[in-house]
UniProtKB/TrEMBL annotation:
<comment type="similarity">
    <text>Belongs to the citrate synthase family.</text>
</comment>
<keyword id="KW-0816">Tricarboxylic acid cycle</keyword>
<dbReference type="InterPro" id="IPR002020">
    <property type="entry name" value="Citrate_synthase"/>
</dbReference>
<keyword id="KW-0012">Acyltransferase</keyword>
<dbReference type="GO" id="GO:0005737">
    <property type="term" value="C:cytoplasm"/>
</dbReference>
<dbReference type="InterPro" id="IPR036969">
    <property type="entry name" value="Citrate_synthase_sf"/>
</dbReference>
<dbReference type="InterPro" id="IPR016143">
    <property type="entry name" value="Citrate_synth-like_sm_a-sub"/>
</dbReference>
<dbReference type="InterPro" id="IPR016142">
    <property type="entry name" value="Citrate_synth-like_lrg_a-sub"/>
</dbReference>
<dbReference type="InterPro" id="IPR010953">
    <property type="entry name" value="Citrate_synthase_typ-I"/>
</dbReference>
<dbReference type="Pfam" id="PF00285">
    <property type="entry name" value="Citrate_synt"/>
</dbReference>
<feature type="active site">
    <location>
        <position position="270"/>
    </location>
</feature>
<comment type="pathway">
    <text>Carbohydrate metabolism; tricarboxylic acid cycle; isocitrate from oxaloacetate: step 1/2.</text>
</comment>
<dbReference type="InterPro" id="IPR024176">
    <property type="entry name" value="Citrate_synthase_bac-typ"/>
</dbReference>
<dbReference type="InterPro" id="IPR019810">
    <property type="entry name" value="Citrate_synthase_AS"/>
</dbReference>
<protein>
    <recommendedName>
        <fullName>Citrate synthase</fullName>
    </recommendedName>
</protein>
<keyword id="KW-0808">Transferase</keyword>
<dbReference type="GO" id="GO:0036440">
    <property type="term" value="F:citrate synthase activity"/>
</dbReference>
Length: 394
């Protein structure tokens, strides 16, 4: 009764279940954005081009890419009144909570949130969201370490600008390494969309009620912050640190198999992939290559490899088709980039923005009806409640 019920699309309001954006084959480990394999996109494009592909349906021409980059740049500054919001968040506020609050507030600063005007300048609204949220994320980080914010620069690319806003400072100039920019592009591309996961389903459902883009994305951010979803990349590192400190990998494999124990192998298993997550395979390969190129040794990478090997040779995981997912190795690369753990899920959100925008656009653009899933009632029957009201008076 309480297992997963696969609802027929008619329950979920057909339009909500059909999409032209992303294809995932969980059995064969295939992921394609707008029909293009993820491996090709990682090899031959930058994140900004993939963002354009997801939102507009095609990769941009050189002129379209230039125009989109200009729009991202022109929309990268936060309204100065909004910048002062950061003065009022408590120091320890989690950046995901700051982000969802600030994004919702955008609707107050950019009044053309009614859908008609948004649809008219969808390019501006999309560019503003993808660009300004990157600035908000970097400002939230600077706030958390008590440093002055660093403004976006017109002469830097999307990912280079983010790294510069995160790590530059008046007394400690940040040296932008092309390798770091490349790795960040790859991570953002791999996280840019993933069909109807939990947070994207929230975005599609809310978008179907004709809610403005900013309020819709704010809800997506909240859904993503859950430890079983986007919060898993931070939970993986915390788990690897715990295993590294303890030293006994097999003990934690045993714990993860014990149904009476709440411990789960974070970064393992997936609702859809019943084979190796193609994104995890790419990230694992990049981990080895990047850490070697920058001569950076992370003991947690050795622990991660040991955990993977122990799990993938254990019948419990093999029988249940539990493999590393996108979150298992991602945190290792974020650590190598200098990104702090409390920003890991924010990174996921930044990358997922174009996917969410594409799904929101798909829901408001078509002839979709409001998403209204039907539930399968398994509560009390009339016979079980007969007579229960007889003795009651107002
Ligand atoms: C993301 O949907 C998306 O696309 C999401 C995402 C995206 O790009 O948007 O891919 C991003 O959210 C990736 C997932 C990140 N979360 C984690 O890594 C958290 C750890 N993973 C698990 O909590 C779990 O695997 C889920 C939540 C991801 C899926 O949970 P399910 O649906 O319960 O998994 P399942 O039905 O395949 O479980 C089958 C069995 C169960 O045991 P039995 O009932 O058969 O005894 O496998 C067990 C589960 O208890 N199991 C695990 C496990 N994951 C599932 N046991 C130990 N460790 C795990 N990680």
């Amino acid at each position: 009764q309480t297992g997963y019920v696969t609802l027929d699309p008619s329950f979920m309001n057909t339009a909500a279940c059909y999409s032209q954006i992303t294809f995932v084959d969980g059995e064969r480990g295939i992921l394609r954005y707008r029909g293009i394999p993820i491996e090709e996109l990682v090899r031959k494009t930058m994140f900004v081009e993939v963002a354009y592909l997801l939102v507009h349906g095609e990769l941009p021409s050189e002129e379209q890419r230039r125009n989109f980059s200009t729009m991202l740049n022109l929309n990268s500054m936060l309204h100065e009144d909004m910048r002062h919001f950061f003065d009022h968040f408590p120091r320890g506020a989690h950046p995901m909570h700051i982000l969802s609050t600030m994004i919702n507030a955008l609707a107050a600063f950019y009044p053309n949130v009614d859908l008609k005007s948004m649809e008219d300048d969808i390019d501006v609204s999309t560019a503003r969201l993808i660009s300004i949220v990157r600035t908000m994320a970097a400002f939230a980080y600077k706030k958390s370490i008590g440093e002055p914010v660093v403004y976006p620069r017109h002469d830097l690319s999307y990912c280079a600008n983010f790294l510069n806003m995160m790590f530059d400072s008046p007394v400690r100039p940040y040296q932008i390494h092309p390798e770091a920019v490349r790795i960040l592009n790859i991570l953002f591309i791999l996280h840019a969309d993933h069909e109807q996961n939990c947070s994207t389903t929230a975005v599609r459902a809310i978008g179907s009620a004709q809610v403005n883009l900013y309020a819709t994305i704010s809800a997506g951010i909240s859904a993503l912050s859950g430890p079983l979803h986007g919060g898993a990349n931070q939970a993986v590192i915390e788990m690897l640190q715990m295993i590294h400190a303890d030293g006994d990998v097999k003990k934690f494999i045993r714990l993860a198999k014990d149904r009476n124990n709440p411990f789960r192998l974070m970064g393992f298993g997936h609702r859809v992939y019943k084979t190796y997550d193609p994104r995890a395979a790419i990230i694992k390969k990049e981990c080895d290559a990047y850490l070697e190129r920058i001569h950076y040794k992370d003991p947690l990478l050795d622990v991660a490899r040991e955990v993977e090997e122990a799990a993938l040779t254990d019948p419990y995981f093999v029988e249940r088709n539990l493999y590393p997912n996108v979150d298992f190795y991602t945190g290792i690369l974020y650590r190598a980039l200098g990104i702090p753990e409390n920003m890991f899920t924010v990174m996921f959100a930044l990358a997922r923005l174009p996917g969410w925008v594409a799904h929101w656009k798909e829901m408001i653009g078509g002839e979709t009806k409001i998403v209204r899933p039907r539930q399968i009632y398994i509560g009390k029957t009339p016979a079980e409640t007969a007579g229960v009201m007889e003795s009651r008076e107002l």
